[in-house]
Amino acid sequence: MSFPGIPGGRSIRGPGDMGGMSQQEQELTRALQATMESCAGKTVMSGVMGFALGGAFGLFMSSMSYDTPLSAQGQQLTNLPLRQQLSRGFRDMGSRSYSSAKNFGIIGAMFAGTECCIESYRAKSDWKNGVTAGCITGGTLGAKAGPQAAAVGCVGFAAFSAAIDAFMRRQTD
Q: Of 69, 91, 108, 155, which is most buried with the most CB atoms under 10 A?
């Protein structure tokens, strides 16, 4: 397809068009696409992206806990020299950030892997895959706390997944 105003009549390549690429580049592109379309690739990518997002979220949330010296923790911290205050603050922010990153990574990988397996098994891409994967993920995460927590986790994750799926699949006018 050519657009007016583009000198030389250059065209914009479509998703399957690999014109202008060498054989090696085409093979690499196909291999990367196959990896990203596989359940293992989606699971790893979701885990890595969840880890990164969780780390940023954890860093932000942990930095908010030092906003006032009026709490008991803040009073203890203000009595220390500045270097120790910074050291403790950064250490705490790092551990909270890592903890949050781990949790988000696990949840992302678990959900994406489960949804991909369900979608592959059903051979359909619809809202039921996400809701089922949400229920399995939430139930699995809550199972250590007992059956009631597993049920609440299942319902909560399924509802959240349904809401996100409805938002993402809505028709735009």
A: 108
Task: Answer yes or no: are the C-beta atoms of 93 and 84 closer than 8 Å.
Answer: no
Range list of H helices, 3-65: 23-37, 39-64
Record the tokens describing residue 108, joined without a space. Answer: 């992302």
Owner of token pair 């619809």: 126
Q: How many residues appear in the chain? A: 173
C-alpha dihedral, 130 to 135 to 138 to 140, nearest 10°: -120
pTM value is 0.75
Summarize pLDDT for 52-89 with one digit per residue, the tens. 999 999 999 888 776 666 555 666 677 778 888 788 88
